[in-house]
Amino acid sequence: xxxxxxxxxxxxxxxxxxxxxxxxxxxxxxxxxxxxxxxxxxxxxxxxxxxxxxxxxxxxxxxxxxxxxxxxxxxxxxxxxxxxxxxxxxxxxxxxxxxxxxxxxxxxxxxxxxxxxxxxxxxxxxxxxxxxxxxxxxxxxxxxxxxxxxxxxxxxxxxxxxxxxxxxxxxxxxxxxxxxxxxxxxxxxxxxxxxxxxxxxxxxxxxxxxxxxxxxxxxxxxxxxxxxxxxxxxxxxxxxxxxxxxxxxxxxxxxxxxxxxxxxxxxxxxxxxxxxxxxxxxxxxxxxxxxxxxxxxxxxxxxxxxxxxxxxxxxxxxxxxxxxxxxxxxxxxxxxxxxxxxxxxxxxxxxxxxxxxxxxxxxxxxxxxxxxxxxxxxxxxxxxxxxxxxxxxxxxxxxxxxxxxxxxxxxxxxxxxxxxxxxxxxxxxxxxxxxxxxxxxxxxxxxxxxxxxxxxxxxxxxxxxxxxxxxxxxxxxxx
Length: 479
Fold this sequence. Notes:
Bactericidal permeability-increasing protein, domain 1, 7-stranded antiparallel sheet, 10 helices, 8-stranded antiparallel sheet, alpha+beta, 2 domains
């Protein structure tokens, strides 16, 4: 039983590694949704505890040995009856469900972090000895014990921060746990070897009193496991800095703008431009991928032959990568707080795209077929963007939710190069590429509508990934 408590608390403490597991959601310590985030992170780890993941220091807890943990436990005070459990194994301890967690943050500690949930069903296998003391004799029985158990877990853990080598770390200063029996079924073999009927009746009686028996051992193991949990938890926490375990939401990439700033539009523009290098390499903690390149996974169909009698081509392109999107200039920004709209222009000096193409058609009487890689270069492009949003409430906090993002593109000069035309014949390929680029204006008009649609979709998702992590007051404080 003591090992159950220890294991439960370890399961219920979020596990992080120096390189965070890809399946673990990052939780920012000053997010208003920190409690739900950590709860979901811990529950997501449950299947990983089944197999373990040594790359991220996640142990395999599908079977744990708890030998000689419970000795001389009094189970019947009237008859002076004691029990010893030895060679005890707990199976399927990864079966847990965190129901609630509540953390309290301040500058230096996290007092009274409360966790509750359910652990089980897990399987118990082991050996028992029951000793009954009578006035003039002692009677003992031994055998194997098996069973399935479910428990409620309540825990209170106090954490504090400390510095080591100019870095901040966190450790547990106090741990208090309580394990409450919910349901279960156990069987003690040979508890009354002289009669199978009596043996069965005794097991039935034991199961009707499992709740009572579990209460009788809680006080005995409380102090022991408070110390053990604290010892092992701190050994784990010492490997990681505080910012690794719980990064601050107001990271270096976020420049706040006071809502009462008389030059608010300029502040917002500077804040967006400050994001450029972070958008280039991505912001993993916000699940914002790098936009270098910007990946357009939806295939596009281009028809540069519209309006040309001598050209009949259809070009299908896919797996498109766009480079240069992070090197933008922001112009004509206007934020209307009353209507929750934002309008701005994006000046993109140089864009380079590549991907795969498939072409089918004709130029004059010459049939054109081919497939392979393509490369395009565009200069002095402009995106005209309108963003519609609203204020929504979640858990008593106001957030910005972006409902629509409309992008209109104008492409300046450019060229497109298709490789492997005519099976790689360079001379014929050059002729066809020249014809395509002589009609680049027509090609760009075909290219723009599907590109606008895809860019609108991607920018909407990217923007919501960012603003959904912050409350409205965090983004636009009033003081």
